[in-house]
Structures are given as C-alpha cells and as structure tokens.
Amino acid sequence: MNPVKRQSTLTSPAVCAGIELHGGNHTRMVMKPAPIGTGIIFVRTDISDRDNQIEVLPENVSGVKNCTTLQNAAGVKVSTIEHFLAALSAAGIDNLIVEIDGQELPALDGSSEPFLKLIEQVGITSQPAPRRYVKVLETVEISKGDSLARIEPADQLILDVTIDFEDEAIGHQRLEISPDVRSFRDRLASARTFARKHEVAALYAAGLSKGGSLDNAVVVDGNKILNPEGLRFNDEFVRHKALDLLGDLYLGGPIIGRVTTVKGGHGINHDLLTALFANPNAWKFVSIESESRETMCDSVSA
Predict the structure, then answer these.
(1) Would you place residue 134 in the very low, low, confident or very high pLDDT band (cuts 50, 70, 90)?
(2) Active site residues
(3) Helix (H) / strand (E) containing 89
(4) DSSP characters for 212-265?
(5) 11: buried, middle or exposed (CB in 10 Å: 19+, 13-18, 0-12)?
(6) CA atoms of 13 and 8, how far apart (whole Å)
(7) Which of the two ends of the chain, N or C, has the fewest CB atoms closer than 10 A to its terminal CB?
(8) Angle, CA 255 vertex, CA 252 and CA 256 arms, to 5°
(9) How many Cβ atoms are within 10 Å of 224's Cβ, its own excluded?
(10) pLDDT at 91 over 80
(11) Can you tell me the distance from the alpha carbon of 256 to that of 137, in angstroms, rounded to the nearest whole number?
(12) Does the pLDDT of residue 293 top 70, yes or no?
C-alpha cells in the first residue's frame, strides 16, 4: 500500500439520492470538486436562516448512537456520514463540497459501494499540493466495558477489527486489512449495515430506522439471515464494522497507524480519535515526499 502523495478532489460533480436509513425522508446530495485545502464540507441546502456549512472535523461530532452525526455552532446537523466518509478515505479524496437537502445522507443499499462507484465514475483529480497525514507516534488505548480501541505506530493504515455477538448468525469474527482503494473495493465497500431483529422495534420506538428495510440492511434473527438473498460475504458483519471504523477515522483525515478494535462501535471509534489528538506527543502531521522519506507538513492548512 503506497500512500497517496497529493491532495485530490473529484473531476466533476456527482449526484445521488435515496431514503434516509433513520429519518425515512428522501434526500439528495451533490458532491462538488473543491480547491486545495478545503477539506470535506457538508452544506445543508434546505437551511438558509443560519450557517448551513458543517466541516468534517472530530470536534464537530455531536452524536454517535447508531450512526455518526456532525453539528456546527449554529446547531445544523448532518448524520449517517460514515459509509460515505469510508469511500472518500479509500479513494483518497481530500477536498469536497457536499450539498445535501436534508439532515441525513441517503442509505442507498446500506454499504459504501454506491458511493465508491459514483466517485470512480466521475473520476478523481490530483491537486498540486502535498497530502497531509496524521502519523501515529505513540500508542493510545481506551476501553469501555468489554469494548477496546487502540491506535499505535505503523508504516501504513492497518485496521484490525474483532466483533463478538451472541447471535449464531454473527458470532465471533475478525478482520485485518490495509484499506487502500483496491482492497476496500474488493473486501469492504459492499458490506452492508446490519441489525438484530429484536433491536428493530427499539430503534423504531426511538424514532430511528424509519427508512430501514431488507433493501438497505442485513437483519439477523438468532441463527437466521432474514434477507432473501443472504449475505454478500460469510463475514459481512465484521467487514461492515471495519468499513464504519474507516469512515469514523477519516473525520481526523488520513492516518498512518495500526488501529485495533474489539467489540467496537461509533462511540469508541470517536473516543479513540479524540484521545489521540488530545495527546500532542502521540502524533504529528506529515506529508509523503517519497516512499522512503517523510517531512513535517505544518504549512498545510487545517
């Protein structure tokens, strides 16, 4: 896996639309190329009475229950961003304006694959500026109950994800991957979000999963997969957890380090990123000048 050396954006605008997984509304989003140093910015086109721009930054995370939600200082939100961010991470997209006419991204098929296909269809343009990476220098580890998340130094981004569910259809699964665009496309992109049947009623009661269906999620009932077509992979569940982790990590930008999670989720993913950036000795910004040399990259804007 060779790190991408230059910043990049889309070659031309791309559009997608669909039903929100949790809100159940129809939303449309337009991805537009952006200049060097822009970062990823969501623009809520349905809001005009206050600041409607939301930057993709760890400090803008306002919710991690069942999905990752961002919120700006004006209280404007955008949620269920993790599948989209995973595709941007794998494709190496640094700069993008994402206009959306609702609070939640469309669920599409519950995976990252439709986003990745759209990105690759319109094309990726390399920009004449070095890409800024977060290089991990010291190990940071946190735990919550029986969940654990750790990030430690490595020469590339490596994800090591373990899940353990009582449901026989899921059980204990582990996956290790270095998610460049090829491995992401082949092993993670099409893995769908999932829920257990007994959780679905609770989600509805909490006002969530209004748009959820067997078209955009895998539903498990004990040892049964309720989707007529079955699974896309025998270990689709841990693959999707790795996909979520990749998307959540991209809130901090591209990372060089090894990330291990056990029984993880959006909450502990965010806590790990927060803990990393809270320790100035544990990381530094670098750009990749060559495959064998790194340089400090403080001059690149945040």
Answers:
(1) very high
(2) 266
(3) helix 82-91
(4) --TTT-EEEETTEE-STT--SSTTHHHHHHHHHHHHHHGGG--EESEEEEES--
(5) middle
(6) 14
(7) C
(8) 160
(9) 12
(10) yes
(11) 9
(12) no
- DSSP helix/strand/coil, 101: coil
Nearest CA-CA partner of 40 in 121, 117, 100: 100
pLDDT at 1: 59
| CA distance linking residue 168 with residue 237, whole number of Å | 12
Tokens 């409607």 belong to 52
Residue 55 has pLDDT above 50, yes or no: yes
What is the predicted pLDDT for the residue at 204?
Answer: 76
Bridge partner residues of 174 (DSSP): 162
CA-based radius of gyration for the chain: 18
Burial of 87 (0-12, 13-18, 19+ CB in 10 A): buried
CA-CA-CA-CA dihedral for 35, 41, 44, 47, to nearest 10: -80
What pLDDT, on a 0 to 100 scale, did the predictor assign at position 298? Answer: 45
Which string of DSSP letters, residue by residue, matches 261-297?
A: EES--HHHHHHHHHHHHH-TTSEEEEEEEETTEEEE-
